[in-house]
Amino acid sequence: MHNLLTGSDLLIIMLSGFFMILFAGAYTLLYGLGKITKKSKYIKISYIFAIAQFTAALMMITPDFLDPFWKYIIMFSACAYLFIPQGMWWVVHTSHTYWERQENNKDV
Amino acid sequence: MEFGWLEITVAAIVISLILGVIFTRGSSWIEPRFWKNIAIVTSLVMVVFLLILTFDTLASIKMGNGRVPEATVINKKISYVYDEQKRWYVPKVSGEEPLFGKIWSEEEALALINKGKMTIQSKACMDCHTLLGNGGYYAPDLTKAWLDPKWNLLIKDMVGANSKEEAMAKWIQHPDQYPTFQRKMPDLGITDEEAKAIVAYLKWMSAIDTNGFPDNFKADEQ
Amino acid sequence: MTKQGLYESQKLGLWYMVAGLILFGAQNLFGLLIAYQYINPDFLFGLLDFNIGRILHINAMVVWLLLGFIGAIYWFLPIETGRETVGIKLGKLAFFVLVAAVTVVVLVYLFIQIGPGNQISLWFINEGREYIEAPRWADIGIVVVVLIFLYNVIATVIASKRLTGIMGVLIVDLVALAGLYLAGMFYTVNISVDQYFWWWVIHLWVEATWEVLIGCIMALSLMYVLKTPRKIVEGWLYLEVFLVFGTGILGLGHHYFWIGTPEYWLGIGGFFSALEPLPLVAMIIHAIYDAGAHKLRTVNRPALFWIFAQAFGNFFGAGVWGFMQTLPQINMYSHGTQLAASHGHMAFFGAYVATNIAVAYIMVQKLRDPEEKYVFDSKLWKWAYVLMIIGIVGMVGALMVAGFAQTEIERAVGGSGWQAYIDAQLHPWMAEAMWWRLGFGFIFFIGYILLIIDLLTIGKNKEELEVLPEAEVSHA
Ligand code: HEM
Ligand code: HEM
Ligand SMILES: [Fe+2]
User: Fold this and answer.
1) What would you measure as the largest C-alpha separation in chain B, in angstroms?
2) What is the DSSP track for C6-26?
């Protein structure tokens, strides 16, 4: 592995890995905010971060340095992160509304 | 182990999935019970896999089983060479090379490096240095310290020693008198015996197969 | 200060938290000391060397966080079980034993520091293994104290004849947490075996059992601060356990790349630890949902804000900073550099310090406003909050720059030898980062001082507080 490596490749990979998860977080945050405040503006901005997240993943696999297998894993994660905020939101929202309704019925 | 990591990983996930499906039959995902069973099943599967891997790992890192050398490796010449197939560096043990002018018997060698380990712990070296990359970041990594060219290039003359091991032992006892960096290592009150033991330990440790860490280490050719 | 209406268990929990917060102060002072030694290595050279200051810094951290967790559980236990904690006398005894033991250990660290290379040193002075340097006698003492605590929790749950989901998770988790400590209590000449089990304590604590433990504490806090229904809190807790244990247990492999252990750990560790950010992303969604659904209406503003800091800090510190260096081919170069310190500070602060502070505010509210008539708030907590966050982010940022330089200069190009190490340390990116770290460390410390002042004063002057609307009082 070492003969392919240049210091700048390593920096690119580490920084893109950092930004990949960071943007995934920003996407999650803004998507959640948009949903909860019902402001589609946030959701639109959140998609920019979704794309940024994906781009960072692409940056991560551009240098030759990583083995193909890790590149697949990274791209798979990048695809998964595109849908995780929506999926998680749906889980949280559905369960909250369901149980809060149950709870309120109990009160009545 | 016969299986590669991919098989192990896939097995852990598939077994969790199958058991998860079995144990959550009949409950809706919205019920806490559903997630409770998934959590229990997955955690147990992961723990079982960890235990199996632990047995396998412990067998292969036993001293003398290949990856971690026997104590008597301190009587051998050790180098760090590039392995084309693995694409990383591996330690290579070859020929005799007495330590402190002597070939140590099995018991002697073990007692010596044992003393070295106890000294390294008692003096808390690892809160300044890293060993195998773990510890404090205030001072150099010691994983391959035995192979460092600086001993022969600089320290030997500095402390007035005839061999590398003698130079190391002397320097470790009085590092504050022979600094090579404004950040000095303190005098830790290390005895002659302890210093020898530490050097033996560092030599022994440099022969551990660490999957190529550190990469590109410029080992002493002597 | 009235303590009316408090269970004995809650008073005990308060003691634990107070002791913890005092140690937190000590942790920060020693952190500043060793950060200064990076810049002026002659400072206290030969008197209180870097390694001793560092031991005090990280041991104080481990102990104070554990004290805070125990305090939090003694606090919530009677609320959750509806009765006084069984064995409260024993619990108090254990508290004093622990405080006495910690004092002795600290004095030995300060004045004896290190011993000759034999077993007596390891038993009575210093075990020399990062984070768990405490000598063996103290290990045994810690185990006894934790067993007493465990007994109290289990006996109280049994006596209450009601096992809630949270309590079930908590008990299993505490048993695992205490059991793991045993894995760190032995001596071996073989450093690979040594580090193999050392990581069981460190990694399986912070990335598995502690993470679930604070999941339980957060669940209890949420029910208390936001009045979230139990079914939601419990279902969510189970989901969290699934994600944390499902990824974190084998994620342990990211520490088995280079310590002599077999090659299959490169794949297993890389794969499972790459999934570890997942539960943390999930927690963000949950935090936003709760915040939004309640429109930030709460009885306790500082606690709520520290709970948010926790959700985000955990994600940043563990998820972002951890992921960056967890793939084996990257870790080969970043391993053992300032990047690990960068990640360690962000993760411990975000995940665990934030939790304990949130709980401390919940405790203080009950002391000053037992009937929950007011919205618990002050001006000062915001200053402490902002300064501590700026402080930690600044330190972590400086260390990240230093870590990149070190990874490149020492590891990738230099090959990690003695001289390569020195060359990297002298590079401006590293040398200057040490100044920045110290500066932000001071800011952090000022934040800490304000935090303590606020905890001592918040809610005392009722005229400054907003009265809670009638509707919400009845809801509580
Ligand atoms: C007052 C601010 C602080 C300063 C100036 C400071 C400074 C330091 C320094 C100089 C080290 C030694 C790193 C090395 O070996 O090179 C260290 C280690 C450490 N500190 Fe701090 N620290 C501070 C606050 C904290 C806080 C709030 C936490 C978390 C709760 C923390 C957790 C740690 C940990 C976990 C390590 C070990 C890191 C590792 O080995 O990777 N520190 N700190
Ligand atoms: C709250 C959770 C976490 C805490 C408190 C934490 C803390 C730490 C600390 C203190 C270290 C340095 C250990 C040492 O002294 O040598 C460390 C190392 C490490 N952590 Fe974490 N961590 C957390 C979560 C994570 C996660 C989720 C990941 C992966 C995605 C991760 C990846 C790593 C890696 C790869 C290292 C090794 C660095 C090296 O090779 O030197 N951590 N962690
Ligand atoms: Fe870890």
Assistant:
1) 79
2) --HHHHHHHHHHHHHHHHHHH
ipTM over 0.90: yes
Which domain does C270 fall in, by range? 164-297
Same domain, C82 and C208: no
A84: helix, strand or coil: helix
Check: CB of residue C193 under 8 Å from CB of residue C259.
Answer: no
Indicate the domain borders of chain A: 7-82
Same domain, C192 and C144: no
In-domain check, residue C313: yes
Residue-wise burial string across A52-74, b where 16 or more C-beta atoms lie within 10 A, e elsewhere:
bbbebbebbbebebbeeebeebb
Split chain C (476 residues) into runs of 10 and give each run's mean pLDDT. Answer: 74 97 98 98 97 98 96 95 94 95 96 96 95 94 92 96 93 95 94 98 96 93 78 90 96 97 95 92 87 74 92 94 93 96 97 96 92 88 98 98 95 94 97 98 98 95 76 43
Q: Which of B30, B89, B213, B216 to mutate to test the interface with A (most CBs of A within 10 A)?
A: B30
Per-residue model confidence (pLDDT) at position A7: 65
What pLDDT shows up at residue C470?
55
**Number of domain units in chain C:** 3
Closest listed residue to residue C446, CA positions, set C401, C378, C394 = C394
Q: Do A98 and B30 touch (CB under 8 A)?
A: yes
C243, C269, C297: which is the final residue of a domain? C297
Which ligand is closest to the CA of C344, given by its number? 2
User: What pLDDT is attached to residue C476?
Assistant: 35
Domain identity same for C274 and C126 = no
Q: Is the CB of B138 under 6 A from ligand 1?
A: yes
Contact assessment for residue B5 and residue C268, using Cβ atoms and an 8 Å cutoff: yes
Average pLDDT of every residue of chain B: 95
For residue C134, give both structure tokens: 């405490």
Which residues are CB-neighbours of A38 under 8 A, at least 6 positions away?
none
Indicate whether residue C279 lines ligand 2 (CB < 6 A): no
Instruction: Please determine, for residue A3, whether its predicted confidence score (pLDDT) is greater than 50.
Output: no
| C236–chain A Cβ distance below 8 A for any pair | yes
Say if C319 is an interface residue toward chain A (CB within 8 Å).
yes
Instruction: Say whether pLDDT at A18 is over 80.
Output: yes
pTM of the prediction?
0.95
pLDDT in tens, A77-91: 899 999 999 999 998
Residues C244 and C197 both lie in one domain: yes
Hey, is the C-beta of B215 within 8 angstroms of any chain A C-beta?
A: yes
Q: Which of A32, A65, A67 is nearest to A46 (CA)?
A: A32
Chain C nearest C-alpha distance from A88 (Å): 6
Neighbours of A, requiring at least 3 CB pairs below 8 Å, are B, C
Asked whether residue A4 carries a pLDDT value surpassing 60, the answer given is no
Distance (Å) from the alpha carbon of A79 to chain C's nearest alpha carbon:
13
Chain B touched by A95 (CB under 8 Å): yes
Q: Are C313 and C415 found together in one domain?
A: yes
Q: Do B57 and C262 touch (CB under 8 A)?
A: yes
Domain co-membership, C14 together with C126: yes
Tell me which H or E stretch contains C235.
helix C230-251
